[in-house]
Structure formats: C-alpha cells, structure tokens
Write a structure and sequence with these properties.
Length: 354
C-alpha cells in the first residue's frame, strides 16, 4: 500500500468512526425521546432510561454502518476532488482502481464487522432493552427465551419444564408440570402441544399422573391458568431481533421439526447474513459517484447517493416482504437485491475511468 493509499484509508476510517458514533448516538436518543412519554407513566429512574439508551444504541450501529461508509467516502474523496488531488494522482500514472481497491477490502471487513455486531452485540442488547421495558410495565422480568429446556417456578406449588417454546407462534411443545403439596410431589401432567389463546394456555394430548393414588388418566384440550410466566404476547417484540444468526438457525430447525411454517424465520435468517453486504453496496456506490461526477457540488453528489440508497433499501424491504408472504423463496428474497447491486457496482468498478 502506497503512502497516498494509506493516507486516504486513514482519513476515511476516522470519518467512518466519527459518523457511526454520532449517528448511532443520535438515533438512540431519538428512540428514547419517542418512547419517553410512554415510559414516564411507569416512573422509571434516570439510570433505567440511560440503560435503555445504551441497550438500544448497538442495533443502530448495524443499520447505520452502510450509510456511514457511503457518506464518509463521499466526504473524503469529494474534498480530494475539489482540491484536484485525484487529478494530480492520475497525472503520475497511478490507476484509480489501485487507489480504490483497498476500500473494497475495507468494505468487506466492515461487512464482517456488521454481521458480528448484529450477532454478538445488537441481538443480546435488544433482548435487554425489551426486557427492561417489560420490567417497567409489569414489575418483573420476562421469562428468558430459550429454544429448549426451560425450567421455572409458577406460583408456590407448581414447577414447569418446557422442551421447546416458540413465543411468536404462541406454542409450547412437550411441557411437563409438577404439582407440589406441603413439600411433597403429588401430581404431574404432560402435554404434547400447548397453544396460547390470548388469556390462558390450552393443552392438548394431556396425560395426568396421580402420584398419591398411583393412577393415570388422559384428556385433550384442557385450559390451565397455572402457567402465566410465558404470557408476554401483548408485547410487540420481534423475536428475530433478539436472536443472533446462530440462534435463528437453531430456532428455525425447531420450527421445522415441529411442523410449523418457518418461511418468515427463514427470510430473517438469510437477511441477517445478506444485510451486512449493504456495506459493500454503499462503498461501490460512493466510488462510482466519486469517479464519474465532478464533486464541485457536494450537495448534488450526496443527494444522488441518498437517492440510490433509498432505492436500494426500498427494493430490499420489498423483496423481504415478498419472501415473508411466500411469493418468492426465502433465499432469493434476502439475496436478490444485494447480489444485483453488488454485480452492477463491480461492473462499474471494472469500467472505472482512468
């Protein structure tokens, strides 16, 4: 890497960092302000409001990193164009492709970072943010979401074990309930499938075991009011936002094994992998604009970049919606737009003016 390339790489990285810190802090602040009137009726402490801001900020790093890449590249090289720096570089015989090739590599690294931030930072912090809101409203934590083997104490006389729990489906698979009376296990019952009807759980394929009289009986479609800890369906929470890519793989497999429609989960699974490639798309857009337009008017160039970005995100959202509805396969819904834009961007990069 030449001295000139290192200079521009350093300048861009500094601008990227400043933009992502500023934009995410601002976005997190706007979310807190948006929810402030709803939060105040629960009389939260200032430390809890600050915690909510901290928990919500990481998800905006994931979403805003592509935009920071686009704007940062335009700012740095727009300045270089205005002072004729790139013209001076070209006059030495240096190829523009060589100047911008490190930025293609940087975009790939940033895409990998975007994926890692989503899986290891944004997803767990989204869970913490949603749990904080739930605790403020209900004065207790939500039941922790797991894909298997959940144990919890329900009231003082009931212990519940759940094999698989699907919050967004309102479904429990393979539940075992133990009833205790005076420190003695007196009864237990199991159910294959349980559905939440909005107020209570309805158990199907139930087997009762009377451990005092040692008898067994069976029933079907039994309503129970013993299980309340999982009644969190009044919350408008996207389960996929709380799970990493690897959690979604496990969750999707559980849905598939249980015979439930997993189309939406499949789309979200592929989208978690395809969205980071937006960073590469935005870098290619910025390079195409810098090398093809005279940056005398930065406002026009930034406007064109924002317009292209809006087209990209509208197309991406539309494609995901078609995937959710089943109109197109989940894989195509998540990858069609990123692959199409990257293909066009790489073609323009290859045809870059010398």
């Amino acid at each position: 890497m030449t001295i000139i390339e290192r200079y521009y790489v350093k300048e861009c990285l500094i601008v990227y960092l400043a933009l992502i810190v500023g934009l995410t802090a601002l976005a997190g602040t706007f979310e807190v302000i948006d929810k402030y009137d709803k939060l105040m009726k629960y009389e939260p402490r200032y430390t809890e409001i600050l915690l909510y801001w901290m928990y919500t900020t990481p998800k905006y790093v994931k979403y805003l990193l592509p935009m920071a890449t686009l704007i940062g590249t335009l700012l740095v090289f727009g300045q270089a164009m205005r002072f004729n720096e790139l013209i001076a570089i070209k006059s030495t015989g240096t190829s523009m492709k060589r100047i911008f090739m490190p930025f293609i590599v940087i975009s790939m690294v940033l895409a990998a970072m975007d994926f890692s931030i989503d899986s290891f930072l944004a997803s767990p912090f989204n869970f913490k943010a949603n749990n904080l809101l739930y605790r403020l409203k209900h004065n207790h934590d939500r039941t922790l979401f797991k894909t298997n083997n959940i144990w919890f104490l329900e009231k003082s006389d009931t212990i519940v074990n759940i094999s698989r729990y699907f919050p967004d489906k309102g479904v429990i698979k393979d539940i075992t309930v133990f009833v205790v009376d005076k420190d003695r296990l007196t009864r237990m019952y199991t159910a294959g499938t349980s559905l939440y009807n909005g107020s209570r759980w309805v158990l199907s394929d139930v087997t009762f075991y009377d451990l005092v009289n040692m008898t067994i009986s069976r029933a079907n479609d039994i309503s129970v009011d013993k299980i309340n800890a999982l009644s969190i369906y009044d919350e408008t929470v996207s389960i996929s936002d709380e799970m990493s890519f690897f959690d979604l793989i496990s969750y999707n497999q559980h849905l598939k094994n249980s015979g439930y429609d997993n189309q939406k989960t499949l789309v979200n699974l592929h989208a978690k992998l395809s969205y980071p490639f937006t960073v590469i798309v935005m870098m290619l857009v910025a390079i195409a604009i810098v090398t093809r337009l005279k940056m005398g008017s930065g406002t026009i160039s930034v406007g064109i970049a924002i317009a292209i970005s809006l087209v990209y995100w509208i197309c991406f959202a539309l494609s995901l919606s078609m995937g959710y509805s089943g109109m197109i396969p989940a894989f195509i819904a998540s990858w069609l737009v990123p692959v199409a834009f990257i293909t066009v961007g790489m073609y323009l990069f290859q045809k870059m003016p010398h």
